[in-house]
Amino acid sequence: MALWVDKYRPRELAKLDFHKDQADNLRNLCKQSDFPHLMFYGPSGAGKKTRIMCLLREMYGAGVERLRSETMTFTTPSNRKIEVMTVSSNYHLEVNPSDAGMYDRTVVIDLIKQVAQTHQIEINGQREFKVIVISEGDELTKDAQHALRRTMEKYVATCRIIISVNSTSRIIPAIRSRCLGIRVAAPNETEIVSILQSTCKREGLTLPMELAKRVVDKSERNLRRALLMLEASKVAKAPFTANQEIPDLDWQVFLRETASQIISEQTPGKLEKIRERLYELLTQGVPPNLIFRGLVEQLVNNCDMSIKAKTLEFAAEYEHRMQSGAKHIFHLEAFVAQFMNIYKKFLSELVMTDDF
Amino acid sequence: MSARKKTWARSAFSEMSLSVSPATTEATPVKRSRTSSYTTTTTRVSRSQTGKSTPTAKPLVEEDSVDLTVLSDKEEDSQGPPPEVKENWMDSFAPTTSEDLAVHPKKIAELRDWLRHCVAVGKKFPAQMCLLTGPTGAGKTATLRVLAKEFGYQVQEWINPVDCEVVNALGDQVSGNAYVGSHLEAFKSFLLRASRYKSLLESQNKRLLLVEDFPNVLLDEKQDVNFEELLDEYSSYGKSPLVFIVADSKSRGLNISYRLFPDQLKAKHRIEHISFNAIASTIMQKSMKAFCSVMQQPQNKALYKLPSSSVVDSIVVGAQGDVRNALINLHLSSLKGVANMPTKKLDISVASKGRKKKATQSTLKSIGRDESITLMHALGRVLNPKFNDQKMLLHSPEELTESFSTEPRNFVNFVHANYLPHFKDIEEVVSAIDDLGLADALLNEYREGAVSVTGLNIAIRGVMLANSAPVSGWMPVKGPKRINIKSLATLAEQKLVGVGYAGISRTHYATEYSSFVKSIASRLSEVNSSQSMELN
């Protein structure tokens, strides 16, 4: 039993549902014996990983789909042991170095060395290099990126690197110039609707058009989210109806509640409670920039026109500081405090003008 | 002084000759008592406990002859008039009776009770143990020495030996087969033998072992040395009471009493734990007076002048309950031919009889104990800022910054974790958190060292100045929170996601998968269980 997302994931470049021209280009790329390092970039849930797997299959055949996961252990220079989970086949290895946190540099260097120092045993009919897939490459620290740049050049004979990133802005220019960038844009709404419909057809379900539209709206053009959402709502209520409830992401619900609490009361005591909630989100693993963004969206939607600009100004300032700082909670809290302050002032002015 | 040096040299030679002679090949640890006179357990004991110093002029030839004659020689000398210059000037100030001690009477009574207990059960259970802890200069060792004398115990102290190579000459083998004796072995043999056998030349029959200088092997975490086993052995074979003295230390890693004496070990061997406090300033004042009167004694008068009362007061303030440090400062400031010590004014509000009164205190400018304040203290000063009449901060942020400049990140985190309940108004919170955020950004800048101190200063100053009317009340201090992102997926959920789960980062899983997968997985397990029910 697998999730729909995996069950109906296209396995070949020819079977991709959208961006077909690009798929053709990728196929042409594979026809040659060699290919450069690649960087897939695009928003979350646009099908970057799917495309990478299709590409690998095109090159190596069905063997890449025999996946196994293993935990690799790395030792940092300070003698700390870190465990990183990897998914690999005989031809490629997929790793997510961001789990190693600030030690990702060691992971990147050691991993590539390990993979690149061994040649493929059987060369005939195969490529003579392995592929390392680095997902969430934009979470790599600058340190790790510089290490990556060096190892990329050194082991170019035995391995290729495919990096999957959300935005190239956080990748250092040195790596950007060494990779062939491939942009994977998010599918548009009609594309998602048709995918949802075909999925339901294959599952033997009928999907009302309104429901499909609502799922697409809610998923923010994130195909993975849309499919998961659809499956979760199927689990909740088996034959679809047009206006059935669609489950939300729980952290978004939590964030919405947090925002309404901020608007309800503006005191230091409340701020402390908000801090606890933010801590809870952070320990769940929700990245701070997403928290920040969600919070700002909710607050701006719920406040008066006159303080919207000010709120956004502060948001921009503190978000910027958060990127340069280390303790995200400081800046999240600073923003909440600022908002509370301006909101409180706004309210008291409102009371005063009412009096006159 | 010269006599002492010679003793050193001579004893070293005698030890060498000892180790060569086959009768005493065993390496014996070198023991010295506090008063720095020198003894080797097997051959020689000088009368250090009497407090008399060795005479300066003594013919060398005589010393090389038989030991006993030297001893008698010394005894004769000791009856003569005291020498002009003391070898150790501190000895003349050392307390001789328990009334002289600057320690709180309760603590003295506690230790006395323990010693009384030792004497009482001495026949049956001789190996009693006691642990004395307290800040430096609280009079732990002095109390023990005075009371041991009162009860007629002879204190035998363990001093870590200097590594010296023992030449292992076996029969006709050429020497060069040298090794360094193990400290641990030496320590063990000290514990078991010094408690058992009395010195030939001591009149007192009762002995008390003192360990203040812990062998380094015991403190090294990597070494696999079991201190507990050592104590087990001692409690079954030891023949005299054993006292451990440990000075308090701020950091946990250096805290011997915390690391070597866990609670269950104390319970197991019934180790009496007496913890001394820093000496209160009133008692300190009294003992300073006593010191001054000692200075006025005829044999000391040539050396000392009477220090002014303001100097004495500032010494007491500066010593912060450390009587040894106070004595050293007093000694220095009252030597003849030295100009008066410059003093520095301190503005400290002293709480007395329930209400606060302003008193100007001063401390010595040049010397005095380094005023280090604890984290909790400093947090209090930052979170509850006090202002003087001129609307100036009572505790300058710069001084606070200085004392925490080695660990700015930690301090800022503590401030952040605790500042909120002290604020009344959200407007003031805004400016405080704004500065904390700025400090965080600055602290993250590792390329320039000074920036982190500036960041700390901004944080401290920002929080202090932002709070115009701090909320007072009992607020427990909270530690900064650490964020450990755990993988939240259960096994069933991981199985559902499949082998690809390993390739999804924890943050990504939390934001994209978690909530949906959870509902799908729970539904699946429901279906599964109902199916199995039907099958049954």
Automatic annotation (TrEMBL), chain A:
Pfam families: DNA_pol3_delta2 (PF13177), RCF1-5-like_lid (PF21960), RFC_C (PF22534). Keywords: DNA replication, Nucleus. GO terms for biological process: DNA repair; DNA strand elongation involved in DNA replication. It comes from the Eukaryota. InterPro entries: AAA+_ATPase, DNA_pol3_clamp-load_cplx_C, DNA_Rep/Repair_Clamp_Loader, P-loop_NTPase. Residues 34-190 form the AAA+ ATPase domain. It is found in: Nucleus. GO terms for molecular function: DNA binding; DNA clamp loader activity. One of its GO terms (cellular component) is nucleus. The keyword Ion transport does not apply. Subunit of the RFC complex, an heteropentameric complex consisting of a large subunit RFC1 and four small subunits RFC2, RFC3, RFC4 and RFC5; the RFC complex interacts with PCNA. Forms an heterotetrameric complex with RFC2, RFC4 and RFC5; this complex has ATPase activity but is not stimulated by PCNA. The heterotetramer of subunits RFC2, RFC3, RFC4 and RFC5 interacts with RAD17. Interacts with CNTD1; this interaction facilitates crossover formation. Subunit of the replication factor C (RFC) complex which acts during elongation of primed DNA templates by DNA polymerases delta and epsilon, and is necessary for ATP-dependent loading of proliferating cell nuclear antigen (PCNA) onto primed DNA. Belongs to the activator 1 small subunits family. This is Replication factor C subunit 3. It comes from Drosophila kikkawai.
From TrEMBL, chain B:
GO terms for biological process: DNA damage checkpoint signaling; DNA repair; mitotic DNA replication checkpoint signaling. Residues 35-50 have a biased composition (Low complexity). Keywords: ATP-binding, Cell cycle, DNA damage, Nucleotide-binding, Nucleus. Residues 14-27 have a biased composition (Polar residues). Its main location: nucleus. Residues 1-89 are annotated as: Disordered. It comes from the Eukaryota. GO terms for cellular component: nucleus. One of its GO terms (molecular function) is chromatin binding. Pfam families: Rad17. It is found in: Nucleus. Belongs to the rad17/RAD24 family. This is Cell cycle checkpoint protein RAD17.
